[in-house]
Design a protein that fits this description.
single chain, about 325 residues, alpha/beta, 7-stranded mixed beta sheet, globular
Length: about 325
């Protein structure tokens, strides 16, 4: 079995907010944790916010970015059972993915879904945990309802389309280009709205049951306009600003709910925890992946040293689906 080096290659942020490949100490798993040798890591918009100082990691979590990985268990911390060194896994983490190794709470490990290659599995943990916990567990999307996801070409959007269709919902998306609209239709979207040319609130006024929103403030009022009676608006991002105005009368009249959620800062265990979400994903969503109803959508995979290029691609909004980093033997 390959020995674990004392140092590893990882991406760090320098004083000018540049991403630099550097040597850092290889983390050691504490009680209840495992060490994973990373095969691939996903880039998420939260990483871009962290890089700018807008979304710091939770207390006690490494400053190294990266919230989802796939790889092989390299070592077990004290008290860990039920998994073994050499086992292939993917995982939801609070940080540390832009590296050759990362420590992962054992309760946040996921099996690699049936039929999914190990590298591709890195595209699933964060989007699956986010979409399943918000759309299914919190908003309660049901078969026959109309679901709207903003950013239909994003990692979250491409995954949410598939989850909603697998549950029997009708799906509407907003996108910024014809190419992304075409890809959204291929994934199952029933209604595609180009936000550069159409107003989604006018197109869908009073019809939508559940909205998954990454925009925040700038979309708040129009999201409420789009909701139907008993509608649920789930806000998970702030790309359109931190504040917005809403017609409270419309919200009350529709008996609608506005729900703000994230996954990264949830507790590790207990009600509403990461462990609870991961367990639900493994039990309820992974069988849908195994049946081919949901699949990872990957825009590109880059060497770890090209992390800055990967973040630039994500920020440009030119990618469709996930951008992955491959640590390899850098």
């Amino acid at each position: 079995m390959t020995s674990i080096p004392e140092t590893m290659r990882a991406i760090v942020v320098d004083g000018e907010k540049n991403l630099v490949l550097d040597d850092v100490a290889t983390p050691v798993p504490a009680a209840g944790e495992v060490l994973v040798r990373i095969a691939a890591a996903g880039i998420n918009r939260a990483d871009l916010m962290q890089r700018q100082g807008l979304y710091p990691p939770p207390p006690g979590i490494t400053d190294i970015m990266g919230m989802e990985v796939s790889g092989t268990i390299a070592a077990l911390g004290p008290g860990v059972d039920g998994v073994a060194v050499g086992q292939e896994v993917c995982a939801l983490i609070a940080g540390g993915g832009y590296a050759q190794y990362a420590v992962v709470p054992a309760a946040q490990l996921l099996p690699v879904p049936a039929g999914v290659p190990l590298i591709d599995a890195a595209a699933l943990p964060e989007v699956a945990s986010t979409v399943w916990s918000t759309v299914v567990m919190d908003a309660g999307l049901r078969a026959g309802e109309l679901f709207l996801v903003h950013g239909g070409g994003s990692g979250i959007g491409t995954h949410a389309i598939q989850v909603a269709k697998a549950l029997g919902a009708r799906v509407a998306v907003t996108v910024g280009s014809a190419g992304k609209g075409e890809r959204a239709r291929e994934l199952g979207a029933d209604i595609v709205i180009n936000y550069r040319e159409q107003d989604f609130a006018a197109e869908l006024a009073g019809q939508v049951d559940v909205i998954l929103d990454i925009m925040g403030g700038s979309y708040l009022a129009r999201n409420v306009d789009a909701l139907g009676i008993g509608g649920r608006l789930v806000v998970i991002g702030m790309q359109g600003g931190f504040t917005g105005e809403v017609n409270v009368g419309a919200l009350i009249g529709k008996r609608a709910r506005v729900i703000g959620l994230n996954v990264r800062n949830r507790p590790l265990t207990g009600p509403g925890s990461k462990a609870e979400i991961v367990a639900a994903v493994a039990a309820d969503e992974w069988p849908l992946v195994g049946r081919g109803l949901i699949a990872p959508v990957i825009s590109t995979a880059l060497p770890l040293a090209d992390a800055e290029k990967g973040q630039d691609l994500l920020e440009s909004k030119d990618s469709v689906g996930k951008v992955l980093l491959l640590p390899g033997d850098v």
